[in-house]
Amino acid sequence: MKVFLIGFMGSGKTTAARRLAARMNCGWEDLDHIIEQETGMSIAQIFRDKGEQAFRDLESRYLKEGVSRPLGVLATGGGTPCYHENMQWMNRTGITVYLKMTAEQLFSRLKETRSNRPLLKGLNDEDLLHYIVQKLRDREPFYNMAHIHIPGFNLDVRSLEDKIYARLKQ
Question: Is this model's pTM higher than 0.85 or not?
Answer without folding.
Answer: yes
